[in-house]
């Protein structure tokens, strides 16, 4: 008998063929011929939807591990997992009246996890290469002892900012590639698998632990997602997910040494998954989208499960990834916007045209200007026929976001809804409403995207709640 979670899963199941066709159309418009050829080669292979099979495999691994840890068989049998192309979701577990639950994870979260894991593999590659040089061997040992293994902060920051700028500006999830050795590719793939396992495991844990919210007034039989302001629930879900991730790794290991290595990697992958969710939720959502505590809080919980000596060394290892994570979420005038020209082509690559990569950098730089700059931008580009551009900008800067939206042509009901702090809102949703209105009011096509981005930033500043900084020192306190 199909559960309500089964029915919802069927509705949400991503249509990969349609997505591939849309991706091909976008790439043709962008002139990304190399990537288009790669997609065409992929489409000729007689394979089924690997993403669905992979997610099913991960959920089965976690179910077996949680069963070993004493989880209820009935709860495990009633949970389902699905990925979605909808970027308005990060990762959540939705309970239903019949006791079933559905874990929903956005493709973009997996992409963000992959960027972190490719970065770790890059660092491992470079350390392995350095260790082959006699003069570098002792330096590597010294750095290992200090916990200072990771470098390339600028590379990780760029990987993350490209991903988030793309989603904020174009509502498309994509990522840069990292040049890795064959061993590095295998390492990155394994870490990504472990990171995905933790993300899914956290949401499954909510179901297994019986976490639920009130009924969803807009969906009969469905409850609100199990995310909660209750840190105890989030902490318990993290603990079970971490234990299950490590248990699944232990079950798949064939020797004591392999077990030790896999447990270390499972720990690091879980930490990277926490940071990936932090970046996604705090850059893509304006309000009500952050369904998990800050990464600094969650990593602290996870580290408490390690031995004291291991806690300190792991905190040191996290210094650079933490700094890059903070830099990736900075949208102030002090931010370091994405710049393709500043990246080393021997480390990072992309099949996208250079013009597209540079355009993403320009949009990222534009969104990181001051409020005064954004007001002046719209005033400067206003004409006698579009004086409403500057008028709306001044209203937003004066703390009147809903009237500003109405002045830009967004209808009153939509303006109120976009400014309602009780409703989840992504930046690209806000920007798309503004862009649609600008197009209808005659703004020329080349200017719609930058004008809507600037207008969106003016509104976001006024409706987005203050968020604490992320970075921790080795003692666990803010750096």
* Count of the domains: 2
Shape: globular
Q: Which strands sit side by side, in order, in the main sheet?
A: 1-3-2
Content-based structural category: mainly alpha
Largest sheet: 3 strands, mixed
DSSP strand tally: 7
Helix content: 55-70%
Helix/strand layout:
Blueprint: H1 4-12, H2 16-30, H3 33-43, H4 50-68, H5 73-77, E1 79-84, E2 91-95, E3 101-106, H6 107-131, H7 134-146, H8 153-170, E4 177-178, H9 182-208, H10 231-252, H11 256-284, E5 285-287, H12 295-303, H13 308-317, H14 319-328, E6 348-349, H15 354-367, H16 371-381, H17 388-397, H18 401-407, H19 412-418, E7 425-426, H20 427-440, H21 445-463
Parallel strand pairs: 1-3
Antiparallel strand pairs: 2-3, 4-6, 5-7
Helix pairs in contact: 2-3, 4-9, 4-10, 6-8, 6-9, 6-11, 8-11, 8-14, 8-15, 9-10, 9-11, 10-11, 11-12, 11-14, 16-17, 16-21, 17-18, 17-21, 18-19, 18-21, 20-21
Please explain how this structure is put together.
By secondary structure, the protein is mainly alpha-helical. It has 2 domains: 50-348, no CATH class; 369-463, no CATH class. 63% of the residues lie in helices and 5% in strands. It has helices at residues 4-12, 16-30, 33-43, 50-68, 73-77, 107-131, 134-146, 153-170, 182-208, 231-252, 256-284, 295-303, 308-317, 319-328, 354-367, 371-381, 388-397, 401-407, 412-418, 427-440, 445-463; strands spanning 79-84, 91-95, 101-106, 177-178, 285-287, 348-349, 425-426. Strands 1-3-2 form a 3-stranded mixed β-sheet, with helices on both faces. A two-stranded antiparallel ribbon has the order 4-6. Strand 2 and strand 3 form a beta hairpin. Helix 4 (50-68) crosses helix 9 (182-208), helix 8 (153-170) crosses helix 15 and helix 10 runs antiparallel to helix 11. It is globular and about 75 Å long. The termini are far apart. Mean pLDDT is 85; it is low at 45-49, 134-142 and 471-479.
